[in-house]
Amino acid sequence: MPNRLAAATSPYLLQHADNPVDWWPWCDEAFAEARRRNVPVLLSVGYAACHWCHVMAHESFENPVIAELMNAGFVNVKVDREERPDVDAVYMEATQAMTGHGGWPMTCFLTPEGEPFHCGTYYPPQPRTGIPSFQQLLAAVIEAWTERGDEVREAARSVVAQLTESARPLPQSTVDGEVLAHAVTALSQEFDPVHAGFGGAPKFPPSMVLEFLLRHHERTGSPEALSLAERTCEAMARGGLYDQLGGGFARYSVDAAWVVPHFEKMLYDNALLLRVYTHLARRTGSALARRVAVETAEFLLTDLHTLQGGFASSLDADTDGVEGLTYAWTPAQLTELLGAEDGAWAANLLRVTETGTFEDGMSTLQLLADPDDPARWQRIRAVLRTARAARPQPGRDDKVVTAWNSLAIAALAEGGAYFDRPQWIDAAVFAADLLLGTHLVDGRLRRSSREGTAGEAVGVLEDYATTAEAFLVLHQVTGQSSWLTHAGGLLDTALEQFADPDNPGVFFDTAADAEKLVRRPSDVSDNATPSGAAALAGALLTGSVLAGSDRASTYRVAAESALSRAGVLAARAPRFAGWWLAVAEAVQHGPVQVAVVSSGADNRRWELMAAARSALPAGAVLIGGEPDEPGVPLLTARPLVNGTAAGYVCRGYVCERPVTSVVELTGAIRRAVRS
To answer: What GO biological process term is on the record, naming one (predicted)?
Structure first.
């Protein structure tokens, strides 16, 4: 049996390379083989950090009896959802339509033409209440295909037709100040007044919603929006969701109180939350927000950094097959490491109890209040970190995903500039260089790489959008014109390849020249990350301010057109439109633009830049350099004032007079933000 997964760039596929199942990667050859044999395709979709994916792999895919049944009756295709989000989106939509829910592992049965006729998620090796065993399911599908093949094919065609019919674009509508205010009201009604966050268990970090709330507060002064954001950020940072020893956030909390996480740590969550906590620290001066931002950045640079300069996708939830093994503690373990006095103090501080807050008498670590002896806590924290490092560690998916690395680049560059951490900016530039040198192939993005080798999967809309956004941030932070040039190229490609020619403002998630699936996905809703269309709208808006006159109008019109397609979603379900709402706040701001010019020898530029960076709202634009610097349109025709550094503040198409002092500049920014 050939090992077709051995050369994969996906660690998830490599985890299955030695299964007795005759796996194929997603490819035309697999479906051709299904047509040749006249058998269905069994599509299994998951990702490396997925706990239940590991469970099903151990129970079923490593079982020779089940593998023999799979090999005899199906062409078996294994897909990493992080590497092929387009495939995942199409068949997750079918799974949700058929079952009313979704998740991973996802198990779909397809015709040789790729049409789904039966979908589900995890199946156990033995039948359970309401769930057949995986073997029973396989036997039933084989029987249906063999005895009623024409009916099965017709049902599959009907599924695709219904999904296509239900996927009509949302009508155009306005996302104005009234819609934004209503969104805050709606979010407040879903807010958990006891534990913070939105909704009940399980609770996910609402990263994009938090960004919107902070921007809304910055524009309107709304105390309600700020309170929702502050309380949620504090609850997440003090609970078990946050790694109190090593920094960084887990994927979600299984309970409503943020006590017990699902322990996998994802790059995208931590990149998005780094940006949120940076913005919160900037706006409120919160010491907690600053600490969490710094620790989260250090987690990215320590635990997820790759040798090639990129960032790995995730750390597993499991260690040696046990969820949370690396992270949970007992009072006895603390006493053994720290001694009786420090052990008891740490157990009380971190809520490590005799009965346990997790499983088997183990507790997650919480820091519900700042310690009364910070030096003692730092000493104990260092001891516990060292001891934890000696434990078995979770696996790392070292696949470098374009979109998620771009989220990290933007967050590190912004945070590095605000917190004066030049090493963060250096890391962001290093990662961006990797994307340019490895992921950009013949002018087009690839979805991922591993160990410096680009994968075959092509980039999707979120890859182009978030990478353009990251490069625009680097242009502002470094002042280098090349990043603006690269961003413009990606935005132009996105408009050319992903726009729906029949519906202005609508964007597909796959390129026009990409592989044709049974349906071309186009999802406007935020999920764990901003939707591709929302991310593109934000990048286009920023690009419209930074680009030259030849592109500015095109980008602005495209951004506003895209935003108009999200109005219905923003009004009805703001929790799933957080990034759209954040972009809309930037539109309401103008966005505000600040250009600081100085001669090369004038250090006052940095004083003005620092003041502007602290005063500006998220979503604003800030650039500094010499007057008329080549390749930096925002510095064109903006001279020094009386031979000294000057700041130019504009909102939309209206600019204030240039100013030369920090006091004048911050005042001009305040007027522009609240006008």
So the answer is: carbohydrate metabolic process
Helices 549-564 & 481-498 angle (0-180, nearest 10): 50
Beta strands, E only, 148-220: none
Q: Give me the pLDDT at residue 139, please.
A: 96
Last residue of a domain, one of 146, 166, 186: 166
* Complete DSSP assignment for 60-126: IIT-HHHHHHHHHH-EEEEEETTT-HHHHHHHHHHHHHHHS---SSEEEEE-TTS-EEEEES---SS
Asked if 312 and 226 sit in the same domain, the reply is: yes
Length of the chain: 675
CA distance 120 to 656: 59
- pLDDT at residue 168 tops 90: no
Q: In b/e form, how buried is each residue of 471-489, taking b as 16+ CB within 10 angstroms?
A: bbbbbbbbbbbebbebbbe
| Confidence bin at 603 (pLDDT 50/70/90) | confident
Question: Rg for the chain (alpha carbons), in Å?
Answer: 26
CA distance 503 to 172: 10
579, pLDDT greater than 90: yes
Nearest to 278 by CA among 414, 410, 404: 414
Please give the C-alpha separations between residue 626 and each of 385, 389, 417, in angstroms, as whole numbers. Answer: 46, 48, 19
Please state the domain count of the chain. 4
551 and 640 assigned to the same domain = no
- Write out pLDDT tens, residues 191-244: 999 999 999 999 999 999 999 999 999 999 999 999 999 999 999 999 999 999
For residue 105, cis peptide bond before it (omega within 30 degrees of 0):
yes
156-168 residues labelled b (16+ CB within 10 A) or e (exposed) = beebbeebeeeee
Task: Establish if 172 belongs to a structural domain.
Answer: no
Q: Given this model, what pLDDT does residue 600 score?
A: 81
Question: 184, 584 in Cβ contact below 8 A?
Answer: no
Q: What is the pLDDT of residue 130?
A: 82
Same domain, 483 and 571: yes
Q: Answer with the residue of higher pLDDT: 608 or 602.
A: 608
Q: Tell me how far apart the alpha carbons of residues 599 and 597 are, in angstroms, rounded to a whole number.
A: 7
Locus of tokens 């030259």: 548
The pLDDT mean for the chain works out to 96
What is the helix, strand, coil percentage profile of the chain, to 5? 50, 15, 35
pLDDT tops 80 at residue 1: no
CATH code at position 70: 3.40.30.10
Residues 530 and 608 grouped into a single domain: no
Scanning the structure block, which residue is given the tokens 């479906």?
Answer: 31
pLDDT tens for residues 8-19?
Answer: 999 999 999 999
Q: What is the pLDDT of residues 305-327, one digit of tens each?
A: 999 999 999 999 889 988 899 99
pTM over 0.85: yes
Encoded amino acid at 589, one letter = H
Q: How many H helices and E strands in the chain?
A: 25, 21
Phi and psi angles of residue 315, each rounded to the nearest 5 degrees, phi first? -115, 140
Q: Is the CB of residue 285 less than 8 Å from the CB of residue 235?
A: no
Q: Are residues 382 and 414 in the same domain?
A: no
Whole-angstrom distance, CA of residue 135 vs CA of residue 6: 26
We report the CATH number of the domain holding residue 604 as 3.40.30
Residue 674: what pLDDT?
80
Neighbours of 6 (CB within 10 A): 10
Tell me the β-bridge partners of 242: 249
Q: Which domain holds residue 29?
A: 11-166
- Within 13 Å of residue 267, how many CA atoms lie on the same side as its CB? 29
